[in-house]
Amino acid sequence: MSRQLSLSTLALIVVALGCSDSKQDKTTTSAATPTVTGAAVSTPAEPVVTTPVSYEAAESVFGTGRFAEAAGLFSDYTVTHPENPWGHYMLGMSAWKAGDREQALAAFDQALRLDSTHRKSLFNSGRVLLETGRAKEALAQIQNALDQEPTSNEGLRLLGRASYEVGNVDSAIQAYHRALSIDERDVWSMNNLGLVYIQQGRSDEAIPPLARAVEIRGNSPVFQNNLATALERSGYPAAAAEAYEASLAADSTYAKASVGLARVTGGGQEVESTAIDLAALSQKFQDQIETWQLTTTVRDSVETVSDSVLISGGEVSDTLSEECDHDL
Length: 328
Hints:
By secondary structure, this protein is mostly helical. The protein contains 16 helices and two strands. A two-stranded antiparallel sheet has the order 1-2.
């Protein structure tokens, strides 16, 4: 009986071992079961599902002023939408605002490779090129944009900047005149025109456009400071002091105005013998703009007639053609 029990017990042990071996095999061959290495347990990584960036989402981030983040989003967007020039354009704008001018230029260039007539990419590429000291390249981009939209006030103002940077003062002045004939309240063209005159030693000519800019937007510290500089250099220290003070009232941290004010009030300055009527000079400049507008209207009418003559097979005098080309 004892021997029989022992044999039975032994049989049960063998069966149990067989069941244990079978379970272990399933465990070690299952891909879904964690493997044990010492005390560490590793599990297979879950697949990462990414949602493509939408143009609207990236643009929304740009609108909040988070330009570096927007640049990253638009960079992702251009990967999934490589044929959309607007995606590359907005990548350029975001990178530029974030301080990466070279990435901005590369993005604008890509937008233009997709659409050579993309006016905003041309204009803003021109801006970045001006900032990086590449005025000749900027001038080419701006002129290309103006070929498509010759009456763009923004483009003409940029043309004035680029022309001045390459040393063509007369062309710069003409560009600002044309910009103002299109928008008589374009204060930045007035300011830039005034700066050209100041830098050319013609400060008395700078006063009227700057007086008009200040009359329209008196809370601009830049305009007030530039008017003060023109007045100071034209021999009106008291009026200059008032303009410097107005600049500082608009922005108490404006260092150039602080230095200028100290200079004209620091003693040794003669008070001007005659007062200067800035309101009258502002009105004089407005009258000039109206004459430019009239000239532009006449020129546009001549161009329309010229186009009609050319279409009908007639001839246009060389002089007239040169004048129109020069003005454009």
